[in-house]
Amino acid sequence: MSPYLRFESSFWSPQSPSATIPDFSVGLNVLHQKIAQSRVENEEIIAFLKDRVAVEELYGAKLSELSRTKGNPHGFLRDEGAGLRRSYESLKEESEELGAGHKQLAVNITELVLKPLTRFTDDYKRKVTLGKATVDQKLRQFEVLAKEMDKARVHYTKKCRDADAAEENALRTASSETTPVVSVTPTGSDPPDTPPSEEDYRTLPILQLGDQQYTAAELDAFLRRVRQAVPATDYKTQLMGTYHNVSSGLDIAKWLQENVSAAENTLHGAETLGQQLVGAGIIKLVSARGAKFQASATAWYQWKLRDDDATSMASTVKMGGIFERLGSIGTNGANGLEHEPTYKRVRKEAERADEAYRNSVKRVDGMRLSLEQTLFAHFQEMEHAEFDRINFIKQVFIDLAATMSNTIPAAKAICDRMVVYQEALRPEHDVQFIVEQYRTGGFSPKPILYENYYHGSAIDQTFGVSIEDITRASRTSVPKIVTEALTAIEQGSEKFTIDEKKLIWTTPIPLDKVHAVRTDLNSGSESITADRLRPFDSLLLAGVLRLYFRELPECLLTVELYDAAKILYSSNDQDEDLRLASISNLIATLPSPNFNTLDALIAHLHRIVKETADPENPDDDTLVTSLSQSLGPILLRPRVEAPVNIHDKHPHRLLKDLIRRHDFVFSDATRKSHQENLRRRSFVPLKATDSTISIPGLPSPQRTSADDRASLEAAAYAAGNLAVHPASGAQPSDKSVKRRSLLTFMSRGGGAGLDDGAKRGVNSVLGIITNRSSTSSDSPLPTPVRPSADSYTTPSSSILSPIMSPSPPPPATPTSPIIPIPPRPKSSVVPEDDEEPYEKTFGAQALKARGEEAMRAKAEVKVEEKKEEMVVKEKVEVNEEKKEVEMKVEADEGEPELDPFFADE
Question: Are residues 20 and 124 in the same domain?
Answer without folding.
Answer: yes
